Amino acid sequence: MSQNLVEIKDVTFSRGERVIYQDMRFSVPKGKITAIMGPSGIGKTTMLRLIGGQLKPDSGDIEFDGQSIPKMPRSRLYEARKRMSMLFQSGALFTDMSVFDNVAFPLREHTKLNEELIRIVVLMKLEAVGLRGAKDLMPAELSGGMARRAALARSIALDPELIMYDEPFAGQDPISMGVLVKLIKSLNQALDITSVVVTHDVAEVLSIADHVVILADKGVIGEGSPEQMKQHESPLVQQFLKGMSDGPVPFHFEAEPYQQELLRAAT
Amino acid sequence: MMLTMMQRVGRSTLDRLSSVGRALFILIGALFSLPNFKKGTPLLIKQLYMVGFLSLIIIVVSGLFIGMVLALQGYTVLVGYGAEDSLGPLVALSLLRELGPVVTALLFAGRAGSALTAEIGLMKATEQLTSLEMMAIDPLKRVIAPRFWAGLISMPLLAMIFSAVAILGAHLVGVEWLGVDAGSFWSIMQAQVSFEKDVLNGLIKSLVFAFIVTWIALYKGYDCIPTSEGISKATTQTVVQSSLAVLGFDFILTAIMFGN
């Protein structure tokens, strides 16, 4: 049995003319928290969509538990998706349902549990994210952090093997951020879930990650444990981890020389 | 120069073709992926309420006024020839054959079509459709199909209600106010209106319009660019394109049904 739940094998993916990934390779170890980091616009969310089978790579393969996601027919892909779940940046709660019904939704759709059992499971999931008291609220009544926690409760409703978090910390205040960091860690341990966290909040994610993948330049520029990453020799990795404004990723967007443009404007 | 123009024409043709393909994909998904009876029925009932029942007010009020105006206009012309007894069939035929299905479809496009597009567009923008996909639930089955069937069922019913209320409005003005004889109003109407030629053809028309308007509304929402600008554009396109399509198809259907 492989140690890795997800394997990205030489994946090339492009949108129109623009190449996003070129022969990308990395793996997501089973039962661990893997952080995927990289500058904005590098295609981190795209990677999650590739793993979830919503997008297909131009070439290469993505394996989930030894099975190729891009080659799966729709019915088998849907079966595989029941074993994984994704926490969206916006939470993506269904706005016409209460928090309780949102969490109950995947259970009602995919299991034959009766309402009594569904109620117990939903209450347990909501308790895990600290929102049992908010079960009757509508999504519009929740704060950003609460909405994300409610969505987290929904994504663990079916006890998935893999959870993909898309920018879970974006736009959160320090308290909600702390709560989410703790939740990701504790869910990973308690439920033995494999977690993939896509983020650029370096400090938060390094505190909980077991495995770090840094993406840039259409590929992986660094992969290993947080300690290995901190000592990585690549200047790009160092620039990213330390948040320096200039370095291999330039501060200035590509342009003609400054002096030349000013002179031209003056004449 | 020539090459750029040809490129542009080629690209826009390809864009059109691919959008027709996507629209067909949605249609097939909506038609053939009805969820099972137990799960699908509550979804359908909810959409029948949202799409059909909530459109009732605008349909009833418009129907009443259009019937009243029709009677008033018809009477002023007919009375000049001493033919005011024919007010009943005039009103009934114009409503059942034309105004009922067409005006209902136009109102439906503005009231329910725009709401469908905006709702689905927002579901797309807030990643609700993607999250359904990720939960292994087909959004075409869960979101599009119930709305499509609800549109298809509601519009012919709304068109019938529209015509019935409009005829009552015409009765109010023609008989109660202008003094047309109630007996001739109803009996000549009954004699002149054929169930197959007028009522059934009107129903077929509104079924075709329901198909067109609901399809356009759902496709525009599902295919929109998920930003506020994209959703607003899609909503406008739904109303404009479905209204024009209804009028165009009305001509074609009228030519087929009553042409000779």
Strands, helices and their partners?
The complex is a heterodimer of chains A (267) and B (260).
Chain A: E1 4-15, E2 18-29, E3 33-37, H1 44-51, E4 59-64, E5 67-68, H2 74-81, E6 84-87, H3 99-110, H4 115-128, H5 144-155, E7 162-166, H6 174-191, E8 194-198, H7 202-208, E9 211-216, E10 219-224, H8 226-230, H9 235-242, H10 258-266
Parallel strand pairs in A: 3-8, 3-9, 6-7, 7-8
Antiparallel strand pairs in A: 1-2, 1-4, 4-5, 9-10
Helix pairs in contact in A: 3-4, 3-5
Chain B: H1 2-32, H2 37-52, H3 56-78, H4 87-125, H5 128-134, H6 139-177, H7 182-192, H8 195-223, H9 228-258
Structural overview:
The complex is a heterodimer of chains A (267) and B (260). Chain A has 267 residues and is an alpha/beta fold. Helices cover 38% and strands 24% of the residues of chain A. Chain A has helices at 44-51, 74-81, 99-110, 115-128, 144-155, 174-191, 202-208, 226-230, 235-242, 258-266; strands at 4-15, 18-29, 33-37, 59-64, 67-68, 84-87, 162-166, 194-198, 211-216, 219-224. In chain A, α3 packs across α4 (115-128) and α3 runs parallel beside α5 (144-155). The N and C termini of chain A lie far apart (70 Å). In chain B, 87% of the residues lie in helices and 0% in strands. The N and C termini of chain B lie far apart (50 Å). The chains are: A alpha/beta (267), B mainly alpha (260).
